[in-house]
Amino acid sequence: MAFDWGIAAQMLFVAPMVAAGVGFGEQMAGYGPVARIAAAGATLLLAVPLAVGGELIRRGTRWMRLPQVLLNSGLAVYGIVQIPETIGELQGGQLSGLVRTAYLLVASPFIVWALTRPRTRRWFATTTGAAARRRHGSVRWLLTIAAIALVGGASIAFSAYY
C-alpha cells in the first residue's frame, strides 16, 4: 500500500514539473502551455487508480491482492531489465537510476513475497473491511505510511536533480 501511495505521490510531485517542462517533465519543455497542462492533468489522473489500489489493499479487499502481486511482479522484472541502463547512468555520474532501480528490485519483490505468504492470503480471505480498517486505521499508522509514501514518491520525482 505504501508503494502504491508512493507512486501516486510521485505523480503529484511530477505533475507540476510536467506543466513547467522541468525535471521529470523536461520532455514536455518543447510543447506549448496547453499541451503541458493537459499532460500534467493526465499525470494527476494516473495517481487516482494507484491511490485507490493502495486504499483497497489497506482495507483488505480480497480481489485487489492478485492485481498487486501481478503489478509488483512486473515492476520487479522491469527493475531487472533496467540494470544495464542504471549501470550506465552510474558510470555517467547520475544516481537517479540507482534509486529507481533499487525500489524496483527491493520493494516490489518484497511486496510479492508478503502478499503471497500463507498468513497474508489467510488474512485477505478472512478479514472484513471493518477489521482491516481497525488494524490499519490509526492516525499514527496512516501518518507513518503517508510519510513513507511521500518520501518514496519525492525521491523518484526529484531524481532528475541528482
Task: Describe this protein with a few key phrases.
single chain; mainly alpha
Chain-wise SSE layout:
Elements: H1 2-20, H2 33-58, H3 65-81, H4 83-91, H5 96-116, H6 118-126, H7 129-135, H8 139-157
Helix pairs in contact: 1-2, 1-8, 3-5, 4-5
Quick description:
This protein is mainly α. The protein contains eight helices and no strands.
What general form does the structure show? globular
- State the major sheet: none
In which range does the helix fraction lie?
over 70%
Q: How far is it from the N-terminal to the C-terminal residue, by CA?
A: 26 Å
Integer average pLDDT: 92
Q: Strand portion, in percent?
A: under 5%
The SS-based structural class is mainly alpha
Radius of gyration: 17 Å
Uncertain spans, ≥5 residues at pLDDT below 50? none
Number of helices: 8
Overview of the structural elements:
It contains eight helices and no strands. With 162 residues, the chain is mostly helical. It has one domain. Helix 4 runs antiparallel to helix 5. 26% of the residues are buried.
